[in-house]
Amino acid sequence: MKRGTLLLPLALVVLLAAAVAVYDLTRRGTVAEGVEVGGVDVGGLNRDLARDKLARQLEPKLARRVEVRVGGRGFRLPAGRSKVRADAAGMADAALARSREGDPFSRTFRQLTGRPLGARLPARVSYDRSAVSRFASWVERRADRDARSARVRPRGEGIEVVSARRGVDVDARSVERSLARGLRGVRRRSVRAPAEFSRPKLSTAELRKRYPRYITVDRQNFRLRLYRGLKLKRTYTIAVGQVGFDTPAGVYRIQNKGVNPTWYVPEEEWAGDKAGKIIPPGPENPIKSRWMGIYDGAGIHGTDEVGSLGSRASHGCIRMAIPEVKQLYREIPVKTPVYIG
Q: S-S: 164 plus which of 105, 194, 200, 266, CB 3.0-4.6 Å?
């Protein structure tokens, strides 16, 4: 074989390599087609044009507040406090660097065939790291809390159910990392920080089961309220103790119940000549129809003196109209809580 025949293919290879190298050099300042940064297409642009486009389109989106959510609560970091800014120059440089990955032949082949690179790069931002760190520490202090069991907070005018809540344990460093992720977000400016949760000893649902019935007595407004599952079911007009014979305030339970009860008259001056006597059901017995004992001789009972309802009329007991006391009697078992306020 002649020597010239061997040199010709070699010369062609050298020429091709030189052409590829020259072409590749002409493209080194241009972002490859199919490159996006933060969702912005910068393919075919030089560094300056890419930087300007990224600044124009991403600055308004990135320079906004970011919210971090911890245990169901949201904490918002204003852009002015974080001093977040789009790093347009850094993003343009990253786009160019990604475009130059690989060898000259693969880059040239991609360019000449029009095949996009298909690179999606994250947005880059600059922000005040000290300010973000301080905010993360503040979030930790605000979000950390112990688990709280549900409880009943009774008042004369009704009961308040203090709902259970789970405990939250969050670390400031985790919050800071989540905020950094949120600050780089173009579309979504709300992020969740990881946290550990603890369960309360008594849930709200368990509390409602613990108190199937509950009674509150409002002495000032002469109202008795019946709750079922800690939800108000009925309100009754009542009479309470006269001045000097006040119905005792406090939290009690129904101690005993009776139908058409006998009255064991206390040895008190107000009882007059009936003091110490035992009065069976009948006209002389003021305890009508039903009895629900509460504390030290005081209780809830029916009365035929309906005109006394809505006033201070008794010697300490709680009076109700007979149809209503029968209704209440059917509803409540012994040991039902009674709050008198």
A: 200
